[in-house]
Amino acid sequence: MYYNEHTLLFLNGKWIKAAEAAGDLFSQTLHYGNGVFEGIRSYDTPTGPQIFKAREHYERLHHSAKRMNITLPYTVGELIKVSYELLEKNNLSNAYIRPLVYLGANMTLTLTDEVHVLITAWNWGRYLGDKFVRVMISSYQRPNPHSVPVDAKVTGQYSNSILATTEAKSKGFDEALLLDAEGYIAEGPGANFFLEKNGELQTPSLGNILPGITRATIIEYAREFGFPVKERKILPEEINGADAAFFTGTAAEVAGIKSIGGYEFTAPWEDTMAHSLFHAYRNRVTQNEYGDFSVMV
Ligand code: PMP
Known about the structure:
This protein is an alpha+beta fold and 297 residues long.
């Protein structure tokens, strides 16, 4: 699914067949989860494949590496250039791009300076599918920001996401919604959260969440459309009486929520601000409106 015998990936400055690429089983990333990554999408647009907000994603990769004291040996411009080459070499346009920065063999808990950079891509449908999702409030909390940098995409932190997703699926839901350590709504396992209530869009403030690039884009659109939007601490009880809710993320894009726990959203989707934002996102990513953000350097 992720590669076939022709797939080429970028590994430490070289183009290698995915089926022949190898990694060290003693990697500190494999054993202890000390690595950083990104999830990026490219879209087929009238002017060719465009990577959506490439600069923002690679700036976040640099930020994540810095938070984990990892030195990333490529500039943002170089990483963008390699990503376009990757699409071209694999003949991909609508693709999901996965850069991973992983470390060399080290079975101690001290930092290793052997840093590897892998970038690969594959075709991937919308992560949560096209149906409205049924969500449960997870019994798992998002990690405490005083324990790990939750504003960084660190591989090991996704054990929390996998636990929450597994719990939700095992209980018959499609997705989880996690609270932070203070009991406020934080985010999904791999997406940010928005609530539409009393004619206003609300989304958890930064601090206990990954600052999503899609989240920032949706806030930007909402302001442009004149929709009131507030970043605030939201209690799970406040879901009651809301008109709509949705997740945002690179993989999920904008995913409508049908219900959370026992509460079902009943407002007609077409009448919500969420619906307009959903369509704006879809149209804009595929119309190359963000071409300027992905200039090659
Ligand atoms: N939260 C988490 C935990 C995520 O993994 C993601 C996906 N990167 C997001 C939010 C959404 O971020 P973005 O919109 O930048 O993809």
